[in-house]
Design goal:
Length: about 170
């Protein structure tokens, strides 16, 4: 009997299943020299790979200032300043990866003046296209939460030279 997780291919069982290490097996291969080279072996994709693809694709859209919630961004800013800390492209991205599908949640900070609905549409389209093209998984949904708006004067340091205390 064939279940959704198991397929029969020329009397050989091929599994596509999720294991406990956070990886998804996309295709099980057939063994033997009689099979095409492209089908010999298994391909598995870790959840972190989908997180990085989605995070990078979201950041490519003009108008996305940052990703992640307030605490996540604060901790990320500290980590970015520490030598060797590096930036985290997965900040603000959560994924659920199944056997053939994935769902993605994004937390964004947008630039002031950018139409949020248009930005969300562009981010959603770019993330879906990138994840489906690179992983072969079907993206069933991309949920976007806009947590903040970056104002133009938030980056400018105060150079007035005045102090509040005499």
């Amino acid at each position: 009997m064939t279940t959704p997780d198991t397929f029969m291919t020329e009397n050989k069982t091929r599994d596509t299943a999720r294991n406990t290490q956070g990886t998804t097996t996309l295709s099980g291969g057939s063994a033997g020299v009689s099979q095409p080279a492209g089908t010999r072996g298994k391909t598995s994709i870790a959840d972190a790979v989908i997180v990085k693809i989605a995070g990078t694709a979201a950041r490519e859209i003009p108008g996305v200032y940052a990703m992640g919630g307030g605490l996540s961004r604060t901790l990320g800013a500290v980590r970015d300043r520490v030598p060797g800390g590096g930036s985290n492209v997965g900040r603000g991205v959560k994924v659920e990866v199944g056997e053939r599908q994935t769902a993605i949640d994004l937390d964004l900070v947008v630039e002031y003046g950018v139409p949020i609905t248009d930005l969300a549409r562009d981010v959603r389209e770019n993330v879906i296209e990138a994840v489906e093209r690179m992983s072969g998984l079907e993206v069933v949904e991309v949920n976007i939460a806009v947590n903040d708006v970056h104002l133009p004067d938030e980056d400018e340091p105060d150079h007035s030279g005045e102090t509040r205390v005499a």
